[in-house]
C-alpha cells in the first residue's frame, strides 16, 4: 500500500478539491478547508496528515507509524509516516472521517451547495 491510495480515495469524495500548497505539499480540501495533506510533489510521499476525532487523537498518536501532526496537533491532526501502520481499509476510513469532520465545520449554506453539486 502506498500513500497514493489515500490520495485517490480523498480525490473521489464529494466536493473534494486538490492542489499543491507551500510549493510541494499535496492537499485535499472540501469547501476550501484541508482534510488531507501529504508528501512532497513531485516524488514519493514520506508522510501524510489528517484530522481525527478528539477521542481518537491520543490513541492514534501512540501507534507506531503515527505521531501528532506538526503545527496541527492542537486541532487534532495526526501524521502518518508508515502506510503499513494500519490496514488500507482502516486508513481510508480515517481519511473519510477527516473529510466528514472538516465538512461538518463548514457553514450550512456551503454544505448545502456541496450536496447540490453531488
Automatic annotation (TrEMBL):
Q: What is this protein called?
A: MmcQ/YjbR family DNA-binding protein
Database matches in Pfam families: YjbR
SUPFAM superfamilies attached here? YjbR-like
- MF terms per GO, please? DNA binding
Gene source species: Roseateles violae
Look up the domain of life of the source: Bacteria
InterPro entries in alphabetical order: YjbR, YjbR-like_sf, YjbR/MT2646/Rv2570-like
What are the alphabetically sorted keywords of the record? DNA-binding
Amino acid at each position: 500500500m502506498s500513500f497514493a491510495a489515500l490520495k485517490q480515495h480523498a480525490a473521489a469524495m464529494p466536493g473534494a478539491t486538490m492542489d499543491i500548497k507551500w510549493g510541494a505539499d499535496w492537499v485535499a480540501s472540501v469547501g476550501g478547508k484541508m482534510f488531507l495533506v501529504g508528501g512532497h510533489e513531485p516524488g514519493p510521499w514520506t508522510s501524510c496528515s489528517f484530522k481525527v476525532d478528539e477521542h481518537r487523537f491520543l490513541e492514534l498518536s501512540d501507534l507506531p507509524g503515527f505521531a501528532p501532526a506538526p503545527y496541527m496537533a492542537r486541532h487534532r491532526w495526526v501524521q502518518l509516516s508508515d502506510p503499513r501502520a494500519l490496514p488500507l481499509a482502516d486508513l481510508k476510513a480515517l481519511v473519510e472521517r477527516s473529510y466528514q469532520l472538516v465538512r461538518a465545520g463548514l457553514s450550512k449554506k456551503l454544505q448545502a451547495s456541496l450536496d447540490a453539486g453531488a
